[in-house]
Write a structure and sequence with these properties.
This protein starts with a helix and ends with a helix. The protein contains eight helices and no strands. The chain has one domain (about 5-140). It is an all-alpha fold and about 140 residues long. It has helices at about 5-15, 35-50, 55-65, 70-75, 80-90, 95-110, 110-120, 125-140.
Length: about 140
């Protein structure tokens, strides 16, 4: 099971889904995806392997789409070194849904590296990311 394949399957579903049959609010459209179990397993395998920039982009994409359930966020919290690597990649990631979740993870990790990246996210172009970074930093007691 490869994460890239799961993401392509998700993207295909996203472009062909019928919004009229959605179970969730329009802002939570990703929750309707029927293959989250496979996506989570592919993300877990990817996180536990050797990360590179391309794989990091795929993980961040999946993280952004999982913004309601936050299962991937929890996976990252359990793997602080991997989360730090992904956080460094997330600073320039275009989707704010990934960046704010990274801010939450960093606050829960609470290391010097996490604080350094949180300080960067406090300057993010998106107000919500900035607010989550600031509240995560204060939640970590720094």
């Amino acid at each position: 099971m490869q994460l890239g394949n799961e993401i392509e399957r998700f993207k295909h579903w996203a472009t062909t889904r019928d919004p009229l049959t959605a179970k969730y609010f329009p802002s939570e459209w990703e929750c309707d995806y029927p293959h989250w179990g496979e996506m989570y397993e592919a993300v877990r395998i990817a996180i536990d392997g050797e990360l590179n920039e391309r794989l990091a982009q795929d993980i961040l994409y999946a993280l952004a789409r999982d913004n309601e359930d936050e299962f991937i966020l929890e996976m990252l919290e359990e793997r602080p070194k991997k989360a730090i690597y992904l956080a460094e990649q997330a600073i320039k990631f275009p989707d704010r849904e990934a960046r704010w979740q990274i801010a939450v993870v960093l606050g829960r990790i609470g290391s010097k590296d996490a604080d350094r990246i949180l300080a960067n996210l406090e300057q993010d172009e998106d107000e919500y990311v900035r607010r989550r970074a600031k509240s995560s930093k204060s939640d970590a007691g720094t």
